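Bench notes, afternoon.
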Amino acid sequence: MRTTPLSIIAVVLFVRVAEAHQVEFTIHEYLVYGDRVESLAQGTTLELGMWDYHDEQGNWIEVPRVVPGRISGPGSATVGPYNGLREDPGWVRIEVSGTFQQLEIRGAEDDGQNRGRPGAFSPWYTVAGNQVPTELKDMQYLELRLTLAGGDEVRTIDFVMTANIRDYHPRLLVDDLAELRARCSGALSHQCQMNSMFANSSHLTAPLDGYSESQLARIAKAMAFEYLTTGDPRYADRVREILLRLASYDRQHWADLRDSIQDLGLGWIGLSWMLALDWSFLALQAHQADLQAIADGTAVFVDYLLEMYQHSDFNNHSYLGRSPVILAGLALSGEGLRDADAARYLEKGFDLLYNHWHPALNSVAGEMGGWHESLGYFDGEMGYPLAVQMDGLRTACGIDFFQDSSFWRSIGRWYLASTVPWDKTLVHWADQGKDRWSRSLDGSVEEGKGTRQYLTAVEKNLARLGHPEAEWVQYLLDDLIGLYYDSGTYAESYYKVAHMNDVLWYQPGHPKSPLPDSPATYHFENLGEVIMRQGNSVADPMAMFACSWFRGGHQQADNGHFSIWYKGYLAVDSGYYDGWGSDHHMNYARRTIAHNTLTVTMPGETFHNTSHNDGGQKLGCNTDYYNSPAEDPDCHACSMKVSTVKDPYFDFISADLTNSYDPAKVSLVTREFVYIRPNTFVVFDRVESTDPTFQKRSLLHSNGRFTNQDSTWYTDDDQGRLWLQVLLPVSAQVVQVGGAGHEWEIDGVNYPPSRGQEFAGAWRLEITPPRQDRFTNFLLLLQASDQNVSSMQTGDTRIAQGATGVEVGNWLVWFGSQGRIDGLSYEAENTSAQHVVVGDLAPSTAYEITTGSTSVTATSDANGVLYFRDTTTGRHTVV
């Protein structure tokens, strides 16, 4: 039975009326993001800065130093706007490092949509000294204008604002303690009971020596939450005992532990530790000596986190390993225990969020969504730490990153689009080790628990801000992930269990919505992924295409890859992420040979972390040196244009993969992927090598063995079938590799994964030209069908001057054989209406389509794709 002593309630209610204390937060502008400089005029120049992993003498350092950019005169520069992340930021001052002639600022309120966009700006105000004009102090956005003379130079700009942190606890994740407790006797009572089962188990009294540091931290979090919801001091006493143990360890202990559990493991410890500290703080105040010891040990731990190697902003380690920093600052701020350290943690934690993680997330997601390291990696090691930091900052002092986050707004779209209609598995791309959303209610299937624990926070905050995207997240929570309960008898996986976070965040009965149940194309432009869905029904086909910049982390060498699903996983992203550094991962799964794309083998070429030469892609640039890969041209591995026509529905994707490969071996690699709804796919490639002897291959992977039937191939999986017709090169050589002992083979060596074989593919076709040439076109026709379909609808190759086409059924699709089509002339013998698609034309250009004496005009789209419906016979010209 849950009990709540009245004396504890009285204390909590009393401290809630105490005043808050004011702290300063600084937005540091280092001039590393080009998009923050809105305009340059009259000759002003911008040189972008970076985060450098070398000191000024060139020695490697673990934590990058800031090398600021510079704005140089003469002329003027407009910088910003900067979002204060709440209605009344309390701007105090602006500090500019460098020389300039005049500094002006103006302000704006939000446009009312809570999407990080300013409304109308005020007039410009000249700044005298460094104080923000009174008229602008409470405006949410500030924008700056600098006037510079020749020789003037500005390196950094700091915007200082104030915020009020609660003097009472809990500060983190709890909007109202009375309301939280009421949830335990209402709609969330079962989740609270599950936490009570855990809190009242042997974990309440068992000797601490039997637990690891990770287990201790998670138990402390569970006990602190039980103290929050019941007020029973027994749980706070257990928290105090555990935190004293954790706080007793010195820096070397944490350094040694990092060797075995990585910075990720320390991050998980710290998240639970800081929440436990905040949630039990009222009870800890009755034991001042112990509280001081805990605060001192907390500083030792957090200081070590800040010493650890800081990964790129585009790597999951950065987000989890340092996630406890700002939470420690919020928990300890103003308590007279480690005030200077708390201020330092607030400064560093806020800088990480504002200048590193938040802009990196938004830059990858754009307005559509996504994260380049895979859904699984974001889900497993980034989602919860980010949600806790952002929501903790909001509840403690009102700073609200959610209202400026296109990443969080769009995550529901990406997750739902990535869910395969047939079996609710997830798109496998990059180091994706997560297979499905589970709907198990008894906890027998763990997948989905980790996702739920932060999506509840996302839905609550999106709904709070009035964003309709909250309905996608609620649908994920209610209909795809389901409710998760657990017996609470184990601690090691306790952080994955969702019930505690349901009590904090879940909103039963909120509106929910799936994606539209109709054909749709989701172009995640910044991410570099296209997902093409026919609908949400189990029998609806689906495809994806990848063409991404290289940002590091858990990406794979897979540009130009496509996957196809129809009543099964038909065109497969081969290999499975079974852990970083495994033989399977390094030698096969992350390499190009494991994907449905192209290889060009240059003898002697080497690749990182493998001794094999698969002829594949180079995995990009050194992102450690750059806060934003947009500023490093070597990271621009692939560029893509997507055209969609909805009546009749087809997608035409043009991708330039050239920069994905070593320029010593290729001068051109492009791929065009056309999806003619609902079940026909055309793939057209141009590959030009620097040496005609370099072998070129087009790869197609499957779970089932390929069967050769006349001039076609087919493979089955589950209840679906994929057909293939190789149209070009003429007389292409097709070799099948796979089967027992050869599923993941390269150079005669098989590298099986330690898990996930059912998603990892087992067979592949290697398609090569019959002779060695410098330039090669590949043209493949694929169709998805049921397994009772005994043959595919084959296509015919069409050749015109400068153009290559395929005619299949009542469709004719043209491509530029070597690039741009300057004009097209071909014969047509139409017995019925034909859909004609011409790619590789000049963009947004009017073309005259002539047959005999009849001509019509049609305009290509912005990507140079032209569609028209043709019912005539004879010579056709498109000029």
